[in-house]
UniProtKB/TrEMBL annotation:
Pfam families: Metallophos. GO terms for molecular function: hydrolase activity. Residues 48-59 have a biased composition (Polar residues). CDD domains: MPP_239FB. This is Calcineurin-like phosphoesterase domain-containing protein. SUPFAM superfamilies: Metallo-dependent phosphatases. Residues 86-266 form the Calcineurin-like phosphoesterase domain. Residues 30-59 are annotated as: Disordered. Belongs to the UPF0046 family. It comes from the Eukaryota.
Length: 335
Protein backbone atom coordinates (compact mmCIF):
# COMPACT_ATOMS: atom_id res chain seq x y z
CA UNK A 1 0.00 0.00 0.00
CA UNK A 2 1.34 3.40 -0.99
CA UNK A 3 1.51 5.93 1.83
CA UNK A 4 2.64 9.49 1.29
CA UNK A 5 3.40 10.23 4.93
CA UNK A 6 5.83 8.38 7.12
CA UNK A 7 4.64 7.29 10.59
CA UNK A 8 6.46 10.30 12.03
CA UNK A 9 4.15 12.64 10.13
CA UNK A 10 0.93 11.45 11.74
CA UNK A 11 0.32 9.99 15.17
CA UNK A 12 -2.96 8.45 16.27
CA UNK A 13 -4.59 8.23 19.67
CA UNK A 14 -6.15 4.83 20.48
CA UNK A 15 -9.89 4.76 19.72
CA UNK A 16 -9.85 8.42 18.72
CA UNK A 17 -7.61 8.04 15.67
CA UNK A 18 -7.27 11.78 15.41
CA UNK A 19 -4.53 12.77 12.93
CA UNK A 20 -1.81 14.93 14.38
CA UNK A 21 0.89 16.43 12.17
CA UNK A 22 4.54 16.33 13.26
CA UNK A 23 7.66 17.80 11.72
CA UNK A 24 5.94 19.86 9.04
CA UNK A 25 6.90 23.56 8.86
CA UNK A 26 4.05 26.07 8.80
CA UNK A 27 3.46 28.43 5.91
CA UNK A 28 4.62 32.02 6.37
CA UNK A 29 1.61 34.28 5.89
CA UNK A 30 0.58 37.89 5.72
CA UNK A 31 -2.63 38.18 7.74
CA UNK A 32 -4.93 40.63 5.98
CA UNK A 33 -7.54 40.60 8.74
CA UNK A 34 -7.11 39.87 12.46
CA UNK A 35 -4.36 37.38 13.26
CA UNK A 36 -5.80 33.93 14.03
CA UNK A 37 -4.88 31.91 17.14
CA UNK A 38 -1.79 29.77 16.66
CA UNK A 39 0.79 27.80 18.65
CA UNK A 40 3.11 29.98 20.71
CA UNK A 41 6.23 28.53 19.11
CA UNK A 42 5.08 29.62 15.65
CA UNK A 43 4.52 33.32 16.35
CA UNK A 44 7.80 34.42 14.81
CA UNK A 45 7.39 32.14 11.79
CA UNK A 46 3.89 33.30 10.95
CA UNK A 47 4.88 36.79 9.85
CA UNK A 48 5.40 38.51 6.54
CA UNK A 49 6.11 42.18 5.88
CA UNK A 50 6.04 41.95 2.10
CA UNK A 51 3.78 44.09 -0.06
CA UNK A 52 0.96 42.40 -1.91
CA UNK A 53 -1.35 43.08 -4.83
CA UNK A 54 -4.43 42.33 -2.69
CA UNK A 55 -6.51 45.37 -1.77
CA UNK A 56 -9.51 45.87 0.51
CA UNK A 57 -10.86 44.41 3.75
CA UNK A 58 -13.29 41.78 2.51
CA UNK A 59 -16.42 43.73 3.36
CA UNK A 60 -19.33 44.74 1.14
CA UNK A 61 -18.20 48.37 1.09
CA UNK A 62 -14.50 47.52 0.81
CA UNK A 63 -14.14 44.07 -0.80
CA UNK A 64 -10.87 42.29 -1.42
CA UNK A 65 -9.66 42.99 -4.96
CA UNK A 66 -8.06 39.93 -6.59
CA UNK A 67 -6.59 39.70 -10.08
CA UNK A 68 -6.18 36.49 -12.04
CA UNK A 69 -3.04 37.99 -13.58
CA UNK A 70 -0.87 39.77 -11.06
CA UNK A 71 0.47 42.08 -13.77
CA UNK A 72 -2.96 43.67 -14.07
CA UNK A 73 -2.73 44.95 -10.50
CA UNK A 74 0.32 47.08 -11.32
CA UNK A 75 -1.45 49.04 -14.04
CA UNK A 76 -4.89 49.54 -12.59
CA UNK A 77 -5.62 52.87 -14.26
CA UNK A 78 -5.20 51.52 -17.79
CA UNK A 79 -6.40 47.94 -17.38
CA UNK A 80 -9.05 47.70 -14.69
CA UNK A 81 -11.86 49.09 -16.79
CA UNK A 82 -11.03 46.61 -19.56
CA UNK A 83 -11.17 43.53 -17.33
CA UNK A 84 -14.19 41.41 -16.54
CA UNK A 85 -15.29 41.31 -12.91
CA UNK A 86 -17.33 39.01 -10.70
CA UNK A 87 -18.27 39.75 -7.10
CA UNK A 88 -18.20 36.74 -4.76
CA UNK A 89 -19.94 36.48 -1.39
CA UNK A 90 -18.40 33.71 0.74
CA UNK A 91 -19.43 31.85 3.87
CA UNK A 92 -19.17 28.50 5.62
CA UNK A 93 -20.35 26.82 8.82
CA UNK A 94 -23.64 28.65 9.19
CA UNK A 95 -25.18 25.72 11.11
CA UNK A 96 -28.85 26.64 10.62
CA UNK A 97 -28.25 30.33 11.30
CA UNK A 98 -27.86 31.66 7.78
CA UNK A 99 -31.21 33.44 8.08
CA UNK A 100 -29.69 35.65 10.81
CA UNK A 101 -26.92 36.96 8.54
CA UNK A 102 -26.92 40.13 6.48
CA UNK A 103 -25.85 38.69 3.14
CA UNK A 104 -24.38 41.22 0.69
CA UNK A 105 -25.45 41.23 -2.92
CA UNK A 106 -23.05 39.86 -5.48
CA UNK A 107 -22.78 37.78 -8.62
CA UNK A 108 -21.78 34.48 -6.98
CA UNK A 109 -22.77 33.03 -3.60
CA UNK A 110 -20.28 30.45 -2.21
CA UNK A 111 -20.90 28.20 0.79
CA UNK A 112 -18.12 25.85 1.97
CA UNK A 113 -20.22 23.39 3.95
CA UNK A 114 -21.80 22.77 7.34
CA UNK A 115 -24.93 24.73 6.58
CA UNK A 116 -26.73 22.25 8.86
CA UNK A 117 -26.42 20.42 12.18
CA UNK A 118 -25.58 16.74 11.94
CA UNK A 119 -28.45 15.38 14.05
CA UNK A 120 -31.10 17.02 11.86
CA UNK A 121 -29.14 17.41 8.62
CA UNK A 122 -31.72 15.79 6.31
CA UNK A 123 -34.41 18.24 7.38
CA UNK A 124 -32.00 21.17 7.67
CA UNK A 125 -30.63 20.76 4.15
CA UNK A 126 -34.10 21.24 2.67
CA UNK A 127 -34.62 24.37 4.78
CA UNK A 128 -31.23 25.69 3.69
CA UNK A 129 -32.04 25.13 0.01
CA UNK A 130 -35.34 26.99 0.38
CA UNK A 131 -33.67 29.97 2.04
CA UNK A 132 -30.88 30.21 -0.54
CA UNK A 133 -33.54 30.23 -3.22
CA UNK A 134 -34.65 33.64 -1.92
CA UNK A 135 -31.20 35.20 -2.38
CA UNK A 136 -30.71 37.45 -5.42
CA UNK A 137 -27.30 36.09 -6.48
CA UNK A 138 -27.30 34.75 -10.03
CA UNK A 139 -24.99 31.84 -9.20
CA UNK A 140 -25.04 29.84 -5.95
CA UNK A 141 -22.53 27.10 -5.15
CA UNK A 142 -22.28 24.67 -2.24
CA UNK A 143 -19.98 21.90 -1.03
CA UNK A 144 -20.60 19.53 1.86
CA UNK A 145 -19.07 19.65 5.33
CA UNK A 146 -18.61 17.18 8.16
CA UNK A 147 -22.08 17.95 9.59
CA UNK A 148 -23.79 16.99 6.31
CA UNK A 149 -24.25 13.39 7.44
CA UNK A 150 -27.38 12.92 5.33
CA UNK A 151 -25.42 13.30 2.07
CA UNK A 152 -24.40 10.11 0.31
CA UNK A 153 -20.89 10.67 -1.11
CA UNK A 154 -21.47 7.87 -3.63
CA UNK A 155 -24.46 9.62 -5.20
CA UNK A 156 -23.82 13.37 -5.54
CA UNK A 157 -26.57 13.54 -8.14
CA UNK A 158 -29.14 12.85 -5.41
CA UNK A 159 -27.82 15.76 -3.37
CA UNK A 160 -28.03 17.99 -6.44
CA UNK A 161 -31.71 17.08 -6.76
CA UNK A 162 -32.32 18.22 -3.18
CA UNK A 163 -30.27 21.39 -3.63
CA UNK A 164 -32.35 22.68 -6.51
CA UNK A 165 -31.34 26.30 -5.85
CA UNK A 166 -27.59 25.70 -5.82
CA UNK A 167 -24.86 23.98 -7.80
CA UNK A 168 -23.49 21.14 -5.67
CA UNK A 169 -19.79 20.42 -6.15
CA UNK A 170 -18.19 17.19 -4.99
CA UNK A 171 -14.77 16.70 -6.56
CA UNK A 172 -16.08 18.65 -9.52
CA UNK A 173 -15.98 22.11 -11.04
CA UNK A 174 -18.19 24.73 -12.58
CA UNK A 175 -17.30 27.49 -15.03
CA UNK A 176 -18.97 30.85 -14.42
CA UNK A 177 -18.37 33.39 -17.16
CA UNK A 178 -14.85 32.09 -17.69
CA UNK A 179 -13.95 31.64 -13.98
CA UNK A 180 -13.31 28.03 -12.93
CA UNK A 181 -14.43 27.01 -9.43
CA UNK A 182 -13.62 23.58 -8.01
CA UNK A 183 -15.14 22.12 -4.84
CA UNK A 184 -14.17 19.17 -2.65
CA UNK A 185 -15.62 18.36 0.82
CA UNK A 186 -13.00 15.90 2.16
CA UNK A 187 -10.78 16.32 5.23
CA UNK A 188 -8.63 13.98 7.33
CA UNK A 189 -11.05 11.89 9.34
CA UNK A 190 -11.23 11.89 13.11
CA UNK A 191 -12.14 9.06 15.47
CA UNK A 192 -15.32 7.11 16.05
CA UNK A 193 -16.29 9.33 18.98
CA UNK A 194 -17.08 12.12 16.52
CA UNK A 195 -20.63 11.90 15.20
CA UNK A 196 -20.36 14.81 12.77
CA UNK A 197 -17.89 13.04 10.53
CA UNK A 198 -19.26 13.17 7.00
CA UNK A 199 -16.59 13.14 4.28
CA UNK A 200 -13.79 12.18 6.66
CA UNK A 201 -10.98 10.42 4.79
CA UNK A 202 -7.96 8.33 5.73
CA UNK A 203 -5.26 10.89 6.53
CA UNK A 204 -2.50 8.71 5.05
CA UNK A 205 -4.35 8.38 1.73
CA UNK A 206 -6.14 11.68 1.24
CA UNK A 207 -3.43 13.38 -0.79
CA UNK A 208 -2.93 10.63 -3.35
CA UNK A 209 -6.63 9.71 -3.53
CA UNK A 210 -8.15 13.20 -3.50
CA UNK A 211 -5.80 16.18 -3.56
CA UNK A 212 -3.50 14.89 -6.32
CA UNK A 213 -6.55 15.00 -8.61
CA UNK A 214 -7.26 18.69 -8.07
CA UNK A 215 -7.04 20.37 -11.49
CA UNK A 216 -4.25 22.87 -12.03
CA UNK A 217 -6.36 25.42 -13.94
CA UNK A 218 -8.58 26.42 -11.01
CA UNK A 219 -9.24 30.08 -10.23
CA UNK A 220 -11.13 29.46 -6.97
CA UNK A 221 -10.78 26.35 -4.81
CA UNK A 222 -13.48 25.46 -2.28
CA UNK A 223 -12.79 22.90 0.46
CA UNK A 224 -14.45 22.40 3.80
CA UNK A 225 -11.31 21.75 5.80
CA UNK A 226 -8.27 24.05 5.82
CA UNK A 227 -4.80 23.35 4.49
CA UNK A 228 -2.20 22.75 7.19
CA UNK A 229 -1.06 25.93 9.03
CA UNK A 230 -3.61 28.15 7.24
CA UNK A 231 -6.10 29.40 9.86
CA UNK A 232 -6.45 25.85 11.15
CA UNK A 233 -5.56 26.09 14.85
CA UNK A 234 -7.81 24.48 17.45
CA UNK A 235 -7.40 26.40 20.75
CA UNK A 236 -9.11 23.61 22.69
CA UNK A 237 -6.53 20.98 21.76
CA UNK A 238 -3.61 23.35 21.12
CA UNK A 239 -3.07 21.63 17.75
CA UNK A 240 -3.33 22.45 14.10
CA UNK A 241 -5.87 20.31 12.27
CA UNK A 242 -5.33 21.37 8.65
CA UNK A 243 -4.27 18.87 5.98
CA UNK A 244 -0.58 18.96 4.95
CA UNK A 245 -1.29 17.16 1.68
CA UNK A 246 -3.82 19.81 0.72
CA UNK A 247 -1.33 22.58 1.48
CA UNK A 248 1.33 20.91 -0.64
CA UNK A 249 -0.91 20.47 -3.67
CA UNK A 250 -2.26 24.02 -3.45
CA UNK A 251 1.05 25.86 -3.22
CA UNK A 252 3.20 23.65 -5.45
CA UNK A 253 0.88 22.66 -8.27
CA UNK A 254 -2.70 23.98 -8.29
CA UNK A 255 -1.91 27.59 -7.31
CA UNK A 256 -5.46 29.00 -7.40
CA UNK A 257 -5.98 32.71 -6.99
CA UNK A 258 -8.25 32.09 -3.98
CA UNK A 259 -8.63 29.10 -1.63
CA UNK A 260 -11.77 29.18 0.54
CA UNK A 261 -12.67 26.87 3.43
CA UNK A 262 -14.26 26.83 6.89
CA UNK A 263 -14.50 24.12 9.57
CA UNK A 264 -12.32 25.92 12.15
CA UNK A 265 -14.72 28.38 13.76
CA UNK A 266 -12.09 30.29 15.74
CA UNK A 267 -9.90 31.13 12.72
CA UNK A 268 -12.22 33.22 10.52
CA UNK A 269 -10.45 35.72 8.27
CA UNK A 270 -8.03 36.22 5.40
CA UNK A 271 -4.34 35.46 5.00
CA UNK A 272 -2.05 35.82 2.01
CA UNK A 273 0.54 33.24 0.95
CA UNK A 274 3.53 34.38 -1.12
CA UNK A 275 6.03 31.94 -2.56
CA UNK A 276 8.86 34.44 -2.02
CA UNK A 277 8.28 34.22 1.75
CA UNK A 278 8.25 30.42 1.83
CA UNK A 279 11.54 29.15 0.48
CA UNK A 280 12.04 27.01 3.58
CA UNK A 281 8.67 25.33 3.12
CA UNK A 282 9.36 24.61 -0.54
CA UNK A 283 12.74 23.17 0.38
CA UNK A 284 10.99 20.90 2.86
CA UNK A 285 8.85 19.48 0.05
CA UNK A 286 11.86 19.03 -2.19
CA UNK A 287 13.72 17.13 0.51
CA UNK A 288 10.66 15.01 1.29
CA UNK A 289 10.37 13.76 -2.23
CA UNK A 290 14.06 13.14 -2.58
CA UNK A 291 13.80 10.73 0.34
CA UNK A 292 10.69 8.86 -0.81
CA UNK A 293 9.90 6.56 -3.69
CA UNK A 294 8.48 8.11 -6.84
CA UNK A 295 4.76 8.76 -6.50
CA UNK A 296 2.04 10.26 -8.63
CA UNK A 297 2.24 13.39 -6.51
CA UNK A 298 6.00 13.66 -6.86
CA UNK A 299 5.81 13.46 -10.63
CA UNK A 300 3.08 16.07 -11.00
CA UNK A 301 4.18 18.65 -8.43
CA UNK A 302 6.49 21.52 -9.30
CA UNK A 303 8.72 22.99 -6.61
CA UNK A 304 9.75 26.49 -7.52
CA UNK A 305 10.15 29.67 -5.48
CA UNK A 306 10.81 32.16 -8.27
CA UNK A 307 7.28 32.35 -9.75
CA UNK A 308 6.02 34.97 -7.27
CA UNK A 309 2.84 33.03 -6.56
CA UNK A 310 0.24 34.76 -4.40
CA UNK A 311 -2.76 32.87 -3.01
CA UNK A 312 -5.51 34.48 -0.96
CA UNK A 313 -6.71 32.05 1.74
CA UNK A 314 -10.13 32.69 3.29
CA UNK A 315 -11.58 30.97 6.34
CA UNK A 316 -15.23 31.87 5.87
CA UNK A 317 -16.70 30.19 9.00
CA UNK A 318 -19.64 32.29 10.14
CA UNK A 319 -20.33 30.73 13.55
CA UNK A 320 -17.80 31.51 16.28
CA UNK A 321 -17.59 31.02 20.01
CA UNK A 322 -20.27 32.31 22.39
CA UNK A 323 -22.90 32.39 19.60
CA UNK A 324 -20.91 34.95 17.60
CA UNK A 325 -22.00 35.40 13.99
CA UNK A 326 -19.51 36.95 11.61
CA UNK A 327 -20.01 38.81 8.35
CA UNK A 328 -19.65 37.07 4.98
CA UNK A 329 -16.39 37.70 3.13
CA UNK A 330 -16.68 39.63 -0.14
CA UNK A 331 -14.14 39.82 -2.96
CA UNK A 332 -14.14 41.15 -6.51
CA UNK A 333 -12.29 38.95 -9.01
CA UNK A 334 -10.84 40.69 -12.06
CA UNK A 335 -9.79 38.62 -15.03
Amino acid sequence: MLKLFKPSTYSFLPWFYTPEVHGHPPAVLLHLTHEPPQPDDEEEQQQSNTNSSIEGLGTESNPFIVYRNKEDASDIGNKKHKLRKLRFVCMSDTHNQIHKLIIPHGDVFLHCGDAVKHRTSARDLITFNTFVGTLPHKHKIFISGNHCTCIDPNHPERTQQILSNLVYLQDSSVDIDGVKIYGSPWRPKRGYVYRAEAFGYDASRIQIDKWSHLPSDVDILMTHGPPYSIRDFNPSSGKRVGCPGLLEEIITRVKPSISIFGHMHDCHGASLYRSADNENLMQFYQDKHKNTATTAVATTSTYTTNDETEILFLNAAMVGGHHLLRNPIVFDFYY
